[in-house]
Fold this sequence. Notes:
It is built from six helices and six strands; from the N terminus they run H-E-H-E-E-E-H-E-H-E-H-H. It has helices spanning about 1-25, 70-80, 115-130, 145-160, 175-180, 185-190; strands at about 50-55, 85-90, 95-100, 115, 135-140, 165-170. Strand 1, helix 2 (about 70-80) and strand 2 (about 85-90) form a beta-alpha-beta unit. The chain has about 200 residues and is α/β, with parallel strands linked by helices.
Amino acid sequence: MKYPLIALIAAVNAFSGIVAAAQIPPTPAPAPIKIQVDPHTTIGPVAKDFIGFGYETSAVAQEGFFSEKNKVMVQLYRTLCPGGLVRIGGIISDWTKFEANGTALLGTKENRTLINQRGLDDLGGFLRATGWKVMWGLNLGTGSKEEAVEQVLAVHKALGDRLQSFQIGNDWRSLPPRNSRTWATSRFITIAAPQKIPSQPLGSC
Length: 205
């Protein structure tokens, strides 16, 4: 009786599957979608400075890269667009130190990058030659508020009207716990010598 019982159960299961399949409605054929574009209708214009590039802060430590003397890159930028936005920051910004008269060093996340006033001045010349602007990322991860203020003043002095905004930090999830708890944006603005900081918009990425 053992094997006939197993056969009976298998037959019932098979029949149940056939019934269930018969009750499932067939999938309808996909309806065609038509898209029409009216070349004479403008919904909204794209800003002339919409285009942009992003670089790690270490690019500024590379001598001659962002420079008006780099004629090839200046021409490439001018040909691409008469005015766009360059974001200087990335993860390296949270491991970058500024020393006005220091020797520039290109580093990685673990090895500190050092930028100096000469590099900032070269960046300013490049921006004025191309017509582009910069969003500058500050060190939220490993620097102090006082160092950030010093960098703000140096960047503002070098870039002038080519400075679009400041960005405080890159990605808070990668920051040391001490700084992620104590470096709120509002605290940076209110504690870090606000009377010294030029009026400048804050950006975000």
